[in-house]
Amino acid sequence: MAAGKKNNRYLSGAPIEPRAIRGDMSAAELIDSAFMAYNGRRLREACRLFAEKMLEPDTVVGMSLTGALTPAGLGMSCIIPLIENGFVDWIVSTGANLYHDTHFGLGLKLYQGTAEADDVALRESGVVRIYDIFFDYRVLLSTDAFFREVARNEEFQHAMGTAEFHYRAGRYVAERERVLKLPRRSLLATAYEYAVPVYTSSPGDSSIGMNLAALELEGYQLRLDPLVDVNETAAIVYSAKASGGNSAVFILGGGSPKNFMLQTEPQIQEVMGIAEKGHDYFLQVTDARPDTGGLSGATPNEAVSWGKIDPDRLPDSVVCYVDSTVALPLIAAYALARRKARKPRRLYDHREEMMEQVKEAYAKVRKKRSRAKAA
Question: What structural domains and CATH numbers belong to the chain?
Fold first, then answer.
């Protein structure tokens, strides 16, 4: 029958013939040889997309962080090594991830616990639970006090975007690590040292924002301006594309950070009116379904309709329906094994010039619109 012909186009894929797993296999070798189908194969495709395409020298990589990833240790185990190797150029995170990350930089402890604990008993014992992570309630109080102490300093007494706030605060976390003689433990401190801009899409929705709000009641002048963040993140993407390079997004979870990272392209195209086609590479790790209509589960195909993803680059999009605590260590290990370190871009140091670049492009559009209106 026709189905048995050797040139059948449906049978042109690689045969499923994995080698037997060995005890001495590296994570990268295991992924390449044994992840043949289903979400395992999707994870292998994610690893290869990240390592082989997104980490090309001309590609700017943005990472979004949603879910309690830093309390689980993923900041130390995965994200810090990725930053150190130049594999992450800018970040959008929930404020909670950055707040809990700071615990480690201050020398505070989090412990493995159990999700089956009696939460009333934990409360009575002064223990806070994040699923199966336990820590002393005083960890929160100590971190609150740290952020209030830092944000009272004169250098914070003006309106700023969240990248500037995190950069300035990260310097204090890095200094605390130095004084305590801690190995590099804080994502915020590492981002400061490598000048990786870190944004929070909802700055009031975390304990950091709560403490800054309390300082406002005391009369301090720090104000976090989200409009600065909208323009700066759009400038990062525009600069990457205008220079002839590519823009890649690596999305862990979904939520507000996912949208904030992806909306950079509609900001450039729809709002500013600058000709652009969308991000070039899209990699998401999520457990959210697309059929509920939420942004967290929205696919790259749907993002094309908004101008967020270049339609010509859809083959360079991968969605893994895997827990981030499973996927991120494997993706990081694969990239570190298969790719040489890149020179850090230090995008925070170039914010002003990137902003000037996008301002100039927007000014040309406005001038063209004015001429058309006058005609």
Answer: 28-374 (3.40.910.10)
- Is 101:188 a contact under the CB 8 Å cutoff? yes
DSSP bridge partners of 112: 133
User: Which of 367, 55, 60 has the alpha carbon at shortest distance from 235?
Assistant: 60
C-alpha 13, offset from chain centre: 33
Two structure tokens written together for 241: 């594309």
The distance of Cα 232 from the centroid of its chain, to the nearest Å, equals 15
Distance (Å) of CA 24 to CA 28, 29, 333, 334: 12, 10, 15, 15
Query: In 3D, which of 84, 120, 66 has the Cα closest to residue 261?
Result: 66
3-state secondary structure of 109: coil
Q: Which residues are catalytic?
A: 308
The sign of the dihedral angle between the CA atoms of 294, 98, 83, 161 is positive
Angstrom CA distances, 353 to 79, 106, 164, 238, 272, stand at: 27, 34, 15, 12, 18
Q: How far apart are the first and last CA of the chain?
A: 68
What type of residue sits at position 220?
Answer: Y
d(CA 206, CA 102): 13
Tokens found for residue 134: 């336990």
Residue 321 amino acid letter: Y
Structure tokens at 61: 């990589």
Which tens digits make up the pLDDT trace of 128-183? Answer: 999 999 999 999 999 999 999 999 999 999 999 999 999 999 999 999 999 999 98
